[in-house]
Design brief:
This protein is an alpha+beta fold and 819 residues long. The protein contains 19 helices and 43 strands. It folds into 4 domains: 120 residues, Topoisomerase II, domain 5, CATH 3.90.199; 79 residues, 2-Layer Sandwich (Gyrase A, domain 2); 118 residues, Orthogonal Bundle (Topoisomerase, domain 3); 314 residues, Neuraminidase, CATH 2.120.10. 30% of the residues lie in helices and 26% in strands. The strands form 13 sheets. Strands 16-11-10-19 form a 4-stranded mixed β-sheet. It has a 4-stranded antiparallel β-sheet with strand order 12-13-15-14, with helices on one face. Strand 40 and strand 41 form a beta hairpin. It is elongated, with a radius of gyration of 41 Å.
């Protein structure tokens, strides 16, 4: 147990306490102070303390919308000196935001000077800018001087400030709010004023209305920057549970001029800086993630936002637009959290719950305002009763006053003679002689009659909850007529872009190449012209110094590319997302398309048309391990990838292949051995397993390739120096996994080691690739068939120091689609 010593010189001030308890209580106190005093808005007026204090200070300074501006520094100083014991930057930043028409749907302050921009430019210093209340702010402060809300002492007890503002409209929904407290956060989007007030009217007319019914009036958020709101399911969830996500898309328009096409953006997502969008888009163009853009420029001016994206002649506008929304901030997700303070306690509310809290607050404000008015009216009516008595006996009253010794005696005589109260007698003595005319008498009588009628009306209203609700309904109708405007944000039922990108992508056969250093590119299949075996090939890629091409895949533009890394993580992307590159380009790093760690590299790529199939992925490692896992286990990868296989530090992945579940696995080693076994010998395992031994290895040997095949297939073997052959799979005896296998090729210094040992079909076309980027395309049938223990013939004529590196098979179906 620790001791907290308040005064080291006074033993009486030493209070024994448990340190953990003191820290817990102190943190809870701090948390509640942040939650209530700074971070979260009150559901009744939708304001945090700093905003409320700013508006009340402006009210006291007389900064009405139809008055003059005053220096922002004057407002900030007034707030700090009277109500807000925090830094001036916090107050000024809040004032600036209340004046920005791109931050608040209905700004609560008017600014004169530089109050920042949608580009993220900061406002000028407070000594340079001026501010006053906007017109709609008056509707939040009306009735504040009529005992409509409670007041509390300020931080030093010298003044009083309102606990909340009367607010005639539900500001929390209308202008929204964001805030991060301790352990919680709020993120309420702005809404259209007319729709929100109409929602209040509907709740008044039917208190059993549901959240979904209210959505017929309050259709969804209405952002000051416009945009298109998508994912109405997320919106319904937010309104019915208090939490949900929606997507906000930019508004694109297509323009044609002199044969050129351009995309013009006139609205962007809420709270996204225009400059960040432009920077991000330019980066995407530089990295070739978005193709078809020739130029981007900002033509925004005081009339509105305008971002112009000039397209290349062969670009499809819808594809470019959808890619921009996918990869850049032209489309953003907005997470809705309807959290606010209810009786100083944080609470997540539904749409109806928010309106009910506002309506309850407004009923209290109207009731207190009417009671205040009634009290003043009855006081005035009491005085008028006395004045009417005096007017009815004017001569006697004057004589009584004249015969009185002094004012006190006159007052006492009037009270005694006409049974008046002291206040009535005082009023009679104060009346001017000019008001004793017939016209003045009639005005007093008229005022008396009107006040009597008003008193009766107020009492009738106060005596009925429905009448109070009718008053609020009239206020809502007035707010709609005076301040209502058209919705800016369009509500769309589409979940994302207007058109699915894949609907616009041509389904064609392409070549995907990968380098050892992690560069990837896409090329048309006809880039590589068919050649006779033994040809020197064409240059397939310009690799960076020290890099080399490792493999090539023939696939469809719409296929998934499953990318498995040295850490055993699996990521996926689509083939069409890999930019088309020229034959001499080295491509783009994989990190541009998948989120790789700094020391993570792609080891294998598996094209797949369907991730829900009943097939398997077989993982083969350099040390001879094999593991099979069902393909559908990888159908929902996360952005950061998912674990596919456990790879030990002394091992590495060689190849990942797709199998049907009833094929043979053939694993080949560098020193010319190969094993064939039924794939079911390696039972299916979970994603995190390492696997089992597939082939035993002798000293200095390692696995170089693997494939899955049937008895009708042939095994293609290619060595480093370009020698190759085909051998019937039946020549490889099927044995149990875990053996050394049989001889796969006759190797020598001339042939080098085995680099490719792959199952092919006689009808296949093959694309061979070398480390120096040379590529040759030949028919499998052009490569002669030999027995297992032979070296074969020259398949690819290589330059000095170049070696064969990778292969891809092109099936007859692929060729037909390509043609």
């Amino acid at each position: 147990m620790s001791k907290i010593q308040v005064n080291p010189h006074a033993d009486d001030d030493i209070v024994p306490a448990v340190l953990e308890d003191e820290m817990q209580q102190a943190y809870l106190d701090y948390s509640m102070s942040v939650i209530v005093g700074r971070a979260l808005p009150d559901v009744r007026d939708g304001l945090k303390p700093v905003h409320r204090r700013i508006l009340y200070s402006m009210h006291e300074l007389g900064l009405t919308h139809d008055g003059d501006f005053k220096k922002s520094a004057r407002v900030v100083g007034d707030v700090l000196g009277k109500f807000h014991p925090h830094g001036d930057s916090a107050v000024y930043d809040a004032l600036v935001r209340m004046a920005q028409d791109f931050s608040l749907r209905y700004p609560l302050a008017e600014g004169q000077g530089n109050f920042g921009s949608i580009d993220g430019d900061a406002a000028a210093q407070m000594r340079y800018t001026e501010a006053k209340m906007s017109k709609i702010t008056q509707e939040m402060l009306d009735d504040i001087d009529q005992d409509a809300v409670d007041f509390k002492e300020n931080f030093d007890g010298s003044l009083e400030e309102p606990e909340l503002l009367p607010s005639k409209f539900p500001n929390l929904l209308v202008n929204g709010s964001t805030g991060i407290a301790v352990g919680m956060a709020t993120n309420i989007p702005p809404h259209n004023l007319a729709e929100t007030c109409q929602g209040v009217i509907r709740l008044i007319e039917d208190d059993d209305v549901s959240n979904l019914d209210l959505m017929e009036d309050i259709k969804g958020p209405d952002f000051p920057t416009g945009g298109i709101l998508r994912n109405t399911d997320g919106l319904r969830k937010a309104y019915t549970t208090g939490r949900g996500k929606v997507t906000i898309s930019s508004r694109f328009e297509t323009e044609e001029e002199d044969g050129d096409t351009r995309l013009v953006v006139t609205e962007i997502p809420y709270m996204v800086q225009k400059s960040k969008i432009l920077e991000g888009t330019a980066e995407l163009v530089r990295e070739d993630k978005v193709e078809g853009i020739r130029e981007i420029r900002d033509e925004s001016d005081r009339h509105g936002l305008r971002i112009v994206i000039e397209l290349k002649r062969d670009a499809q506008p819808e594809i470019v637009k959808n890619k921009l929304m996918k990869y850049s901030r032209f489309q953003e997700t907005f997470g809705i959290i309807l959290l606010g303070l209810v009786d100083n306690q944080p609470k997540v509310l539904t749409l109806k719950g928010l309106l009910e809290e506002f309506l309850s607050h407004r009923k209290e404000v109207v009731r207190r305002r009417l009671e205040y008015e009634l009290e003043n009216a009855e006081d005035r009516l009491h005085i008028l009763d006395g004045l009417l008595v005096a007017l009815d006996h004017i001569d006697d009253v004057i004589e009584t006053i004249q015969n009185s010794k002094n004012t006190k005696t006159a007052r006492e005589n009037l009270i005694e003679r006409y049974e008046l109260s002291e206040d009535q007698a005082r009023a009679i003595l104060k009346i001017r002689l000019s008001r004793l005319t017939q016209m003045e008498s009639e005005e007093i009588q008229s005022e008396h009659d009107e006040l009597s009628e008003r008193v009766k009306e107020i009492k009738d209203i106060l005596g009925s909850d429905q009448e109070i609700l009718n008053v609020i309904k009239e206020e809502m109708e007035y707010i709609i007529s005076e301040y209502g405007d058209e919705r800016r944000t369009e509500i769309s039922d589409h979940e994302s872009g207007d058109i699915d990108i894949e609907d616009l992508i041509e389904d064609e056969t392409v070549v995907i190449t990968r380098s050892r250093e992690g560069y990837v590119k896409r090329l048309p299949l006809d880039t590589y012209k068919q050649q006779r075996r033994g040809g020197v090939g064409v240059i397939g890629s310009e690799t960076k110094e020290g890099d080399s091409l490792t493999d090539v895949h023939i696939t469809s533009t719409k296929s998934y590319l499953l990318c498995i890394t040295n850490k055993g993580q699996l990521y996926w992307t689509k083939a069409y997302e890999i930019p088309v590159s020229g034959r001499y380009s080295k491509g783009k790093p994989f990190v541009n398309f998948i989120d790789l760690d700094e020391d993570e590299h792609v080891r294998s790529v598996v094209p797949c048309d369907d991730l829900e199939a009943d097939d398997y992925l077989a993982f083969i490692s350099k040390q001879g391990y094999v593991k099979r896992t069902r393909l559908d286990a990888f159908s929902n990868p996360r952005r950061g990838g998912i674990r596919a296989v456990n790879v030990e530090d002394d091992d590495d992945l060689v190849r990942v292949i797709r199998t049907t579940g009833d094929q043979d696995l053939l694993i080949a080693t560098a020193n010319g051995n190969a094993i064939r076994f039924d794939e079911t010998d390696a039972r299916a395992m979970g994603r995190t397993a390492r696997g089992v031994i597939g082939v035993k290895l002798r000293d200095d040997d390692y696995v170089v390739d693997a494939s899955a095949g049937d008895e009708d297939d042939q095994m293609l073997v290619v060595t480093e120096t370009g020698y190759g052959k085909r051998t019937d799979v039946t020549e490889y005896s099927r044995i149990n996994r875990g053996g050394y296998g049989v001889k796969n090729a006759d190797l020598s210094d001339t042939t080098g080691k085995v680099v490719i040992s792959r199952v092919v079909n006689e009808d296949d076309e093959l694309v061979l690739i070398s480390t120096e980027g040379m590529v040759i395309r030949v028919d499998a049938s052009d490569i002669s068939k030999y027995g297992r223990a032979t070296r074969g013939v020259t398949v690819m004529d290589l330059q000095d120091n170049d070696v064969v590196q990778g292969i891809a098979e092109v099936s007859p179906d692929d060729l037909e689609e390509s043609e």
